[in-house]
Amino acid sequence: MNLLLQALGWVRWLLDATWELLLAELREHPERALIALWLFARALGKTIQTGQLGVRFRFGRVHGALEPGFHWLAPGLERIRVVPARSQTLDLKQQRLSTPKGLVLELDANLVFRIEDPVLALTEVDDYRAGCLTALALAVQEVVWRYGDHGARELKLMGSELADALQPRLARWGIVVEETGFTTLSPSPRTLRLTQLGARLAERRELLAHFDQAGLTQDRALGLLGSPVQLRERASTRYRRAARLHPRGRNGSPRTQQAPTAKAQASAQET
């Protein structure tokens, strides 16, 4: 009992000393006292805005989720962390994935999600946005591998499959998938050339048969058909020929013959 009374006396003396110091500071420097009061009042509580959710941590342990509003705190003993409660968007850009046939697809995907349980979002993963981005990349890879070369024609179905693959992974973090899908999905330039190679060969075969029926020789028919390789070879030949006829200087500009100086003209006239 004596120890309790002594402790209460010390607390009362500390409060009286703090109050006297605050009054003295208020008389001498009122602006500093007001700032100190504002900081002290700020440390006693935290305001959670509309569209946010909070989690109270007491002695480092979770002590429940908080709704929007003002919540009191014990300075130094409690802390409140805030996360958005509204929908958030993540963009997965410039992905190059291969199909089971070895073709390469270039795609962009996005994810619209919402935090339903802030406790899980803050305790089960270090950074929930980075975790969502990683989960989105893995789900995109699985869906593209499953649909293979026909994915570009079934974007809506792939979007629903992507949402089904993402929801179980994000549910353990208290996150709900609202919408997800592919913004762009197209084959790479090399893949596009490979996929169109069969159609081009069939077209050239039909033209060659038509020229053969018309009575043209094989050399003339092939010359009329032409090929991109021949065009590139002709262009490179013209470029090499132009480079020989018009050599360029060190700075890349064509070399021009310099006009003779006045001293050179005078010496030529004397001779």
Question: TL;DR of this structure?
Answer:
The chain has 271 residues and is an alpha+beta fold. The chain contains ten helices and eight strands.
Protein topology:
Blueprint: H1 2-28, H2 30-43, E1 45-48, E2 52-58, E3 61-66, E4 69-72, E5 78-84, E6 88-98, E7 104-115, H3 118-123, H4 128-147, H5 155-171, E8 175-187, H6 189-195, H7 197-213, H8 218-225, H9 228-245, H10 262-270
Antiparallel strand pairs: 1-4, 2-3, 2-5, 6-7, 7-8
Helix pairs in contact: 1-2, 4-5, 7-8
- Name the poorly predicted regions: none
Number of helices: 10
Mean of pLDDT? 78
How many beta strands in the DSSP annotation? 8
Based on the structure given, which CATH architecture of the domain at 88-192 is correct?
2-Layer Sandwich
Structural class: alpha+beta
Radius of gyration: 38 Å
Structure description:
With 271 residues, the chain is an alpha+beta fold. Among the domains are: 8-84, no CATH class; 88-192, 2-Layer Sandwich (Tetrahydropterin Synthase, Chain A). It has helices spanning 2-28, 30-43, 118-123, 128-147, 155-171, 189-195, 197-213, 218-225, 228-245, 262-270, and strands at residues 45-48, 52-58, 61-66, 69-72, 78-84, 88-98, 104-115, 175-187. The strands form three sheets. Strands 3-2-5 form a three-stranded antiparallel beta sheet. Helix 7 packs across helix 8 (218-225). The longest helix is centred in the N-terminal third of the chain and has 27 residues, at 2-28. It is elongated, with a radius of gyration of 38 Å. It starts with a helix and ends with a helix.
